[in-house]
Design goal:
Blueprint: E1 3-6, E2 14-17, H1 18-50, H2 56-86, H3 95-125, H4 130-154, H5 158-177, H6 179-190
Antiparallel strand pairs: 1-2
């Protein structure tokens, strides 16, 4: 059998047979297909929840933002993949660097999303009755969980999952309470589009 190098998300370079490579590609494709379908379905549900509340533009803003978020996570992943290849960093030779750079590459765009979601929901919830504002804040928090799901698809190790999920919730809470921090850290990016 011909052995080829493959790289799967969140894992090191491995020498595998052609059949194993095909199986890995099939699994990755299935994961990403499931992720895209799930995200689109959840955005549809969010739209159906926001429509009767009169916040349909918020649904479109979140959908557009989520598309950019997914692109940002992918770009971070590809850039980090190139850096890992260039400097020959993998989980065998430089475990700590590999682990921490993967964590940072997943956490940075996710925290950016939480800042975006907190700012958008804060603007939408201003002046709303308490029950409507609570629904909007819950939707914002839920989108942060969706953002965590995207990162967990790329970086699937338990280490990343145990840190990124609480980080998403805490960052959303922080930026909801302190929107100045969200604008200071990520406002330059939000102004690009």
């Amino acid at each position: 059998m011909i052995a080829r190098d493959i790289i799967s998300p969140g894992r090191a370079v491995a020498r595998v047979s052609y059949a194993e490579q095909q199986q890995a590609v099939k699994e990755i494709t299935t994961d990403f297909t499931f992720l895209i379908v799930t995200v689109l379905a959840l955005l549809g549900i969010i739209t159906l929840l926001l429509w009767p509340l009169g916040h349909l533009p918020l649904a479109f803003t979140l959908a557009k933002g989520f598309g950019l978020y997914y692109l940002a996570v992918w770009v971070f992943f590809v850039v980090l993949l190139v850096i890992h290849r260039l400097f020959r960093i993998d989980d065998d030779s430089h475990f700590d660097v590999y682990l921490l750079t993967n964590l940072a590459a997943g956490a940075l765009p996710m925290v950016g999303w939480t800042a975006f979601a907190a700012l958008v929901v804060r603007d939408a919830a201003a002046g709303e009755p308490v029950w409507r504002a609570a629904i909007l804040w819950f939707i914002g928090l839920f989108t942060c969980h969706m953002a965590y799901g995207v990162v967990a698809t790329y970086y699937s190790g338990s280490f990343y999952k145990e840190i990124n999920l609480p980080l998403a919730g805490l960052a959303f809470l922080l930026f909801a309470v302190w929107p100045v921090a969200a604008r200071f850290l990520f406002g330059w990016f939000f102004n690009l589009w």
